[in-house]
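Worked example 2:
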Amino acid sequence: MSQGFRLGAFTIHWLQGGVFEVDGGSMFGVVPRVLWEKKCAATPDNYVRLANSPMLLQTPQGNVLIETGLGNKLTAKQRGIFRVRADWDLVAGLARLGLSRESISQVILTHGDFDHAGGVTMLNDSGGLELTFPAARHYLQRQEWEDVLSPNKRSADAYWEENFAGLVEGENLHLVEGEEEVLPGVRLVRSGGHTRGHQAVWLESGGQIALHLGDLLPMPCNSNPLWITAYDNFPLDSIAAKEQFLGQAISREAWFLFYHDPEILACKLDGDGAVREAFCAA
């Protein structure tokens, strides 16, 4: 769990949502390893370690969770396949901050992939499946939800039905149509690219601005608009969206927030995409 990062009247804590490893090439698409390994450490067998760090956003209007981690439902086989190196500890992390599962009023998912939505539901002490945050309204783009319900062959392996059990539109699930303000200073905008309904999260408080681009910008080393992941379903859309959002954020002196980087939790980038100021894990 990170120390608190202040953004105006907001405080952000990064929580332990699990750590796993993925093939290095998958994080950079067609970019050769000889280039990306200069900016991103890899294991001898070409794997990159990724954090899955949900962001607890504490605002004057409520506690918002951005992303939910891997969850506690992975089988032994899945843990081996995904090379899990640290377990999901989200509920305990909230408890250490004096919060319960019921303290979360909103849950924002940039998209429905298992490593972002795995903690929407959890196995309880009896082995039953339940919503992790029963009092929260969950926010997804409508296009994303449509694809969760009817995935294509490429996305079916990433959208797991058990991660969304218990969500009901109009009750605890709110579907966003392009752009919407969740709370004052918390705004969602559909980006597309990584998935059809992938969304970005803009935060603004006290004259300070931050942007979470989800898997369009999983780590600072992906700041080059062309350095997109092999998992992006719509690569040209990803490139265009990155150029647009990066340009807007850099011109506004915004902080970029990261879910997957094990070390850099937030940073500011210069016009060339290099880190010029960083907030790092303790």
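The chain has one domain: 5-280. The mean pLDDT is 97.
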